[in-house]
Amino acid sequence: MNDLISFAEAIPVPVIMIGHDERILITNEPAVKLLGSVDVGRHYITALRQPALLDAIEQTFADGTQRTCGFLGREAGRDTTWTVSVAPVSAMQRPAIALTFEDVTAMETAGQMRRDFVANVSHELRTPLTALLGFIETLGGAAKGDPEAQARFLGIMEREAGRMSRLVEDLLSLSRVEQDERVRPTDRVDLRAIIGSSAAALEPVADGRQSKIDLQMPQTDVIIMGDADQLRQVFTNLIENALKYGRDGGHVTVRLSISEKEPALQGPGVRVDVIDDGDGIASFHIPRLTERFYRADSHRSRALGGTGLGLAIVKHIINRHRGRLRIASEMGQGSQFSVILPFSP
């Protein structure tokens, strides 16, 4: 028995052994951490209270067949999912059962993310597709001889097709960014020039809203290690969002600064703040803004042509550059998106 106890203590996953009298014979530290009080000598029902696991233990005692079942736990304030192997122990003089717990929380989380992603993509595509199919049917029927209705419906169809096209482009972009996320960029790029070109490309958007883009940058080049195309995508997205969600006739400030010791990086860094003067974002939305398809204002985002993937792409690009994204906002006071990147002078 002492050998079995030492063996159980050496196993890094939760292990419990139940004797023929249905009382706990052996447990280890990971099991105590998962289940709380698991005293040797107690009946297993008092420690393991989930019906699926109790049924599996009872059936294995009855037929001696190994089986598995699920177990839900809670650790460090989060829900966890475990697969429990319930197996007879033949080395004992009397029948006994060993329970081994495997943490599958990460696999379950990844599976749920995939399911949510497929559901979100399906939803985002279904709406414009339904509209297109409806208008096509109308154009072939009731509006067949009505040029005014045809022009109106074709305009709507063009917008819906454009929405689907943007979604597909963002999905492809997200896939490429995720694929490259572990590969650190090795090119030397001028961050000042990248921000300038992004702002210049968005001048028509600013003009359309009668807004101004105020660039506050050093007079000299700011060279960092990075991917120029991806960084341009980051700042184009952030500045465009600031223009869209800022007030008409307002201004967007883009400020580039260098710090010898950036607190977020514990070393030299460059910081780019993109600041708008819009309505702001409620605090409970901020932690989730970089999730795929998460929108603080779904109706407004869709009306402005957003796909719900822009900030997710931004987050992955910044992660690839070993940087940080910080978001600060107050209702009625606008928002500030800060990109912090490593800098090696």
- Low-confidence blocks of residues: none
Termini Cα gap:
63 Å
Strand order of the largest sheet: 2-1-5-4-3
User: Structural class given helices, strands, pairing?
Assistant: alpha+beta
Our Rg estimate from Cα atoms comes to: 29 Å
The proportion of residues forming helix, as a percent range, comes to 40-55%
> What is the general shape?
extended
Describe the structure in your own words.
The structure is a single chain. The chain has 345 residues and is an alpha+beta fold. It has helices spanning 2-10, 29-35, 44-47, 51-63, 105-139, 147-180, 191-201, 203-208, 228-245, 298-303, 310-320, and strands spanning 15-18, 24-27, 67-75, 78-88, 97-103, 188-190, 212-216, 223-225, 251-262, 267-275, 324-329, 335-342. Helix 5 (105-139) runs antiparallel to helix 6 (147-180), helix 6 runs parallel beside helix 11 and helix 9 runs antiparallel to helix 11 (310-320). The protein is extended and about 85 Å long.
